[in-house]
What we know:
Elements: H1 2-20, E1 24-33, E2 44-47, E3 52-55, E4 61-67, E5 69-76, E6 83-89, E7 93-94, E8 97-99, H2 116-121, E9 127-129, H3 132-135, H4 147-151, E10 157-158, E11 168-169, E12 177-181, E13 184-185, E14 190-191, E15 196-197, E16 204-210, E17 224-230, E18 239-244, E19 248-258, E20 262-271, H5 273-277, E21 287-302, E22 305-320, E23 324-342, E24 345-362, E25 367-387, E26 390-410, E27 420-421, E28 425-439, E29 444-458, E30 461-465, E31 472-475, E32 480-483, E33 488-492, E34 497-515, E35 518-529, E36 531-534, E37 545-548, E38 556-569, E39 574-591, E40 607-623, E41 628-642, E42 659-660, E43 667-676, E44 681-690, E45 694-695, E46 698-704, E47 707-712, E48 718-719, E49 723-732, E50 743-751, E51 759-766, E52 773-779, E53 784-792
Parallel strand pairs: 1-7, 1-8, 12-17
Antiparallel strand pairs: 1-4, 2-3, 2-5, 5-6, 9-16, 10-11, 12-13, 14-15, 16-17, 18-19, 18-53, 19-20, 20-21, 21-22, 22-23, 23-24, 24-25, 25-26, 26-27, 26-28, 28-29, 29-34, 30-33, 31-32, 34-35, 35-38, 36-37, 38-39, 39-40, 40-41, 41-42, 41-43, 43-44, 44-49, 45-48, 46-47, 49-50, 50-53, 51-52
Keywords: Cell outer membrane, Glyoxylate bypass, Magnesium, Membrane, Metal-binding, NADP, Oxidoreductase, Receptor, Tricarboxylic acid cycle
InterPro entries: Beta-barrel_TonB_sf (IPR036942), CarboxyPept-like_regulatory (IPR008969), Isocitrate_DH_NADP_mono (IPR004436), OMP_b-brl_3 (IPR041700), Plug_dom (IPR012910), Plug_dom_sf (IPR037066)
GO molecular function: isocitrate dehydrogenase (NADP+) activity; metal ion binding
Amino acid sequence: MxxxxxxxxxxxxxxxxxxxxxxxxxxSGVITDIKNNETLIGVNVYIPxxxxxxxxNEYGFYSITLPEATYTVLxxxxxxxxxxxxxxxxxxxxxxxxLSESGEILKEVxxxxxxxxxxxxxxxxxxxxxxISAIKKMPVVLGEVDVLKSLLLLPGVTNxxxxxxxxxxxxxxxxxxxxxxxxxxxxxxxxxxxxxxxxNPDAIKDLKLYKGGIPxxxxxxxxxxxxxxQKDGSSKGFHMNGGIGLISxxxxxxxxxxxxxxxxxxxxxxxYAHLFLKLSEDQKDNSAYFYxxxxxxxxxxxxxxxxxxxxxxxxxxxxxxxxxxxxxGNSILNLRWNHLFxxxxxxxxxxxxxxxxxxxxxxxxxxxxxxxIKNYNIKYDFKNYISDKFKLNYGVNAIYYDxxxxxxxxxxxxxxxxxxxxxxxxxxxxxxYISAVxxxxxxxxxxxxxxxxxxxxxxxxxxxxxxxxxxLNFNTDLQIYEKATPIGTKFYDKNEVIQSYNNLEPxxxxxxxxxxxxxxxxxxxxxxxxxxxxxxTSSPTPLDVWMPSDNFIKPQIADQVAIxxxxxxxxxxxxxxxxxxxxxVKNRLDYIDGANLIANKAIEQIVLNGxxxxxxxxxxxxxxxxxxxGWISYTLSKSEQQTPGRTAEESGINGGxxxxxxxxxxxxxxxxGSYNLNEKWxxxxxxxxxxxxxxxxxxxxxxxxxxxxxxxxxxNENRLPTYHHLDISATLTPRKNEGRNWKGEWVFSIYNxxxxxxxxxxxxxxxxxTGNNEAIKTSIFGIVPAVSYNFKF
Length: 793
């Protein structure tokens, strides 16, 4: 009887949709850049007669279903001229649009949706978009345009300080961010141990950062999603652009394979600061450099089918006198097929390979270390534009992981090191999702969905067995944790399941439009993360190891709720965004005192499961138009961790009480702006101020066998000094560029204008002369002037 009722409901729903569409027709197509035929993401398609709108997806496709009538179609996109066209919709119609760049609009900076109206109406929240043109105007260290550093100017986003890799979102760890480049996972997003990001700005088309309200098609991390797409390449004609800086240069080439059907893109970037080391006799065997390669091939088989093959390859090399060599980097490859089943159903099938490699060669001790993680990913996504008020997204995803915690081998014939392979680990993560965006009324919109994920920790592998299944013992006399001795081992054959998990991850957000200029929004999402980054540093390093969940390490599960108020005023010239959030994360690992991570074959013996909570208030005021534009952001937040004992007798960490997480920053202020003086000169400035990072200082010392041993209080109860700096830039575009194919510009910048010596760390030592203890501050950057030259052809 129950199933009969379900069938009747489904048939009734389908009949309703069918009858609903009988007097309605669909307008669909692709929107591109007229200059190079590049598809444009997030273009706003607005029908003013009925105040209905939609946006293009990741491949430039749009679809909107409307009653039979005559309409005005307005096409708007930041940096491009607005297109307006009258249409008579009496049947399903395909219309492609090509937009022309607008030189004046290109100088504006808008970081949310490309249409303020759409941003107010849409249930999307906790989402920031940054245009590449805006990023390139921001002053950065050594003149290197940096995608990740620009994120630090957004509310709710911080990092561990200068030279620190990764970024932290709403009090979460850098490992809790899912970073995607053309849908492929990037496990290490930094060059030179955190000074620069791996993303070549010339090759980037679109960038979105989800801090909350994360759509159901994303999973695997509990803090945020950074979704980046590369350019497709021009199918109209050959183009070249690049830049020459103080420490690196870049070059990007793009052009047609078959005019208006196929295109290629290839971009390279390399640093050359190490060449200057060769000029010094005592430094000639030292090297420190990085390089990137971005590639993409796009081909339109017919109006309903497109193929894309994209890739990225990057490496960092650091060598000291050939006795110490460190090489690490990412490699990704993605083959995608877009298929249009109808004017309402769009699909994308992706086959993805991602590899993160880390190698260390200590020739002076005859030691060589290799580690890394590979994944093989297949995903199939569908976007169903059922009506102008109801859109459905659904799909499946399956990822196979291959972890290499470490391979140790001798690096020369004189080495006393024996070959050793730390136990490799394998895992499989399938998932399925469905989500909908629904306009309930002209004022009320919903976005809701559900993701179901599974995780299988697989063999072949040998797993330790412990008494009472406890890899850690607690010494009640000394009040410390100690490693437990395994009482045996168990071997699992290839693909045999060692441990499995499954989780439902609901997502929900809603928008209520108070009037044409303001709205309130709420969102909730649950996220599950089955991978843990094994690191006891404040920011990720290449030596860190990714571990899959197993019978000892449980998956992280996050629940986040947010409420926001959004307003545009003075004819959309200004925008105000206010959000408050609360987030809890279960099963967040922390490390026992004295934990040693390097080449550890039993990580479960040094970690404890705890929980993380963070909450805060974010404000952002933006000026969108005029010669002067930019934004001011402020975040007031708290991030805390608790790791209680497993029994009443155990102390846990910090006595089981809440303590500051490594990512806690009470205050975070950022100001960025650009001013276009005239066609020749433009100026930019950034100011950032953050509360100092939590650290643990010694609070005493004692003598043992003639050795001075420091003692520490509660974990993370101290802080580094407040972090702040001011950066400025000036861009000169010679007027002789007008009417020429070759166009160039000079960018002059000063990072840390007033020479603030921000503390990267503070170390303690005994002064040999006075015998007194002293604190030594380590700073990375003072004032850094730079000049670079950018060109395009």
